[in-house]
Amino acid sequence: MVLSVIKISHILERVGDYAKNIAKRSHVLSEMPPIDGAGMALKRMSATVEAMMKDALDSYIQRDAALAGDVRQRDLEVDQMYNALFREFLTHMMEDPRNITACMHLHFIAKNIERMGDHATGIAEQVIYLATGELPEEPRPKGESVPRMEGG
């Protein structure tokens, strides 16, 4: 239990780092022309990840392996949303090079949100371990992969 708590606290600290990065990029974006459709898509993705994080933490409090397993499954939806946004941002950049700066900021925001979803899944996996004594044997469900772009 102690090791799981340490891992979960590290995960939550990392999620806070992502939130800080999103806030910085949002401030920069507030001074740029909006990219059509990006705001709603990011809000939808954020809401999904927020619900995953809430359920992951609730599953920890309740030691509910079934709820934690559900969180793991929902990560696939977040991956799919991220991949769609990645392609959408590329399209906006190719159509008008003036969109590149805003789209790159939006891309990194989307990537940070996607990583938060991965971290919610990591918490869920720790809950499964706490509740059952074993980590999940099957790999996490993953969406189609886009080229990895690190940054933050």
UniProtKB/TrEMBL annotation:
InterPro entries, sorted: PhoU (IPR028366), PhoU-like_sf (IPR038078), PhoU_dom (IPR026022)
GO CC term, one of those recorded: cytoplasm
Subunit structure as annotated in this protein's UniProt entry: Homodimer.
Localization of this protein: Cytoplasm
Domain PhoU: 42-127
A Pfam family it matches: PhoU
Gene3D superfamilies per UniProt: Phosphate transport system protein phou homolog 2, domain 2
Domain of life: Bacteria
Family to which the UniProt record says this protein belongs: Belongs to the PhoU family.
Function per UniProt: Plays a role in the regulation of phosphate uptake.
Organism: Paracoccus thiocyanatus
Protein name stated in the entry: Phosphate-specific transport system accessory protein PhoU homolog
